[in-house]
TrEMBL record:
SUPFAM superfamilies: NAD(P)-binding Rossmann-fold domains (SSF51735). One of its GO terms (molecular function) is aldehyde dehydrogenase (NAD+) activity. PANTHER family: NAD(P)-BINDING DOMAIN-CONTAINING PROTEIN-RELATED, PROTEIN YEEZ. One of its GO terms (cellular component) is cytoplasm. The lineage of its organism: Bacteria, Pseudomonadati, Acidobacteriota, Terriglobia, Terriglobales. Residues 6-217 form the NAD-dependent epimerase/dehydratase domain. It comes from the Bacteria. This is Nucleoside-diphosphate-sugar epimerase. InterPro entries: Epimerase_deHydtase, NAD(P)-bd_dom_sf, NAD(P)-dependent_oxidoreduct.
Length: 317
């Protein structure tokens, strides 16, 4: 039986998918550049096969894809190097197709939609990105969709909103949980924080990805998973600090502050063009996904925020 492989497995979503595979007793492969990091995360799981790769080496890509039936694509690039997204996707596809991989699931973002023209956003919304990062993400998708249209591989895309969860350091909400768990300091937030927003609780993602990947009719298009629903960041701040028994204390960086900070911290400059997601949020409608899968599990904010805060406490490290 061919394996499921997680390319770019070391991130939060990769861990969630691995947890879902483990819960189902399915052997899987984790692929990444850093073997030490993969060993640290997956080394204790007898179901996990650890493989390192170099996407710039075609032989390495083919070796990582050998014997794989379904490739779940989670490969990240530096936030200031988004031009790499379509390039790495093409290199991965070339190797996967050469090795006879049958299916590829791209875990994607809302970036390709650009400024929303409807609320909520369904899968029929135009992909009209006005940002560089959105254009690169769209180009990445086009590489996959072209290969699917040509019959070389079955491809599908699952779009997610922003995410949160225990020890999810790349979440917008990371500073909030870290500060609240330590019961001291000020939470650094990206704002504005009073607009409606969607977050998905990371452990909910893994089962959805696996269920989607198993559906033949899922391929050749994209799908939405809206996560736990709509809530403002301020409401989340208030809930988390209340759970921690503290009054909210935040420092909110809006677009102007990000631009100023970007003069000294280049990564902050990269956030400026994406600030529209907080002023004019893309709120996903996932009724199509529910129709396909029958149901999806969504951890409520009340439960997810509680579990995440517990995961950030010093004694849970």
């Amino acid at each position: 039986m061919k394996k499921i492989a997680l390319f770019g497995a070391a991130g939060a979503v990769g861990k969630s998918i691995a947890d879902a595979l483990r819960a189902r007793g399915i052997e899987y492969r984790v692929v990444g550049r850093n073997r030490g990091e993969l060993e640290k995360t997956f080394g204790g799981d007898p179901l996990a096969e650890i493989v390192t790769w170099n996407p710039d080496d075609p032989g390495s890509v083919r070796a990582a894809a050998r014997g794989v039936g379904t490739l779940i694509y989670l490969v990240g690039v530096p936030y200031d190097k988004f031009e790499l997204h379509p390039l790495v996707m093409q290199k991965t596809l070339d190797g996967a197709i050469a090795e006879g991989v049958e299916r590829l699931v791209l875990v994607g973002t809302v970036y390709p939609y650009g400024m929303p023209v409807t609320t909520p956003v369904t899968e029929t919304h135009p992909r009209d990105p006005h940002t560089y990062k959105g254009k690169m993400r769209k180009a990445q998708e086009e590489v996959l969709l072209k290969a699917h249209a040509e019959g070389k591989i079955q491809g599908t895309i699952l779009r997610l909103p922003d995410f949160y969860g225990p020890r999810t350091e790349k979440s917008y909400l990371h500073s909030l949980f870290e500060v609240a768990a330590k019961k001291g300091g000020t939470a650094n937030m990206l704002g504005p924080i009073d607009t409606p927003h969607q977050f998905v609780y990371v452990p909910d993602v893994g089962p959805v990805v696996l269920d989607l990947a198993a559906k033949p009719e899922a391929y050749g298009r994209w799908w939405h998973f809206a996560g736990s629903g709509v809530m403002t960041q301020r409401e989340i701040v208030d809930e988390v600090f209340a759970m921690a028994g503290r009054k909210p204390k935040t420092l909110v960086a809006g677009k102007t502050m990000l631009w100023v900070m970007g003069l000294f911290q280049p990564v902050m400059r990269e956030l400026v063009e994406m600030n529209y997601l907080l002023t004019t949020p893309v709120l996903l409608d996932d009724s199509a996904l529910v129709g396909l899968l029958g149901s999806v599990h969504r951890t409520s904010y009340a439960e997810g925020l509680k579990l995440t805060l517990e995961g950030y406490r010093p004694d849970n490290r």
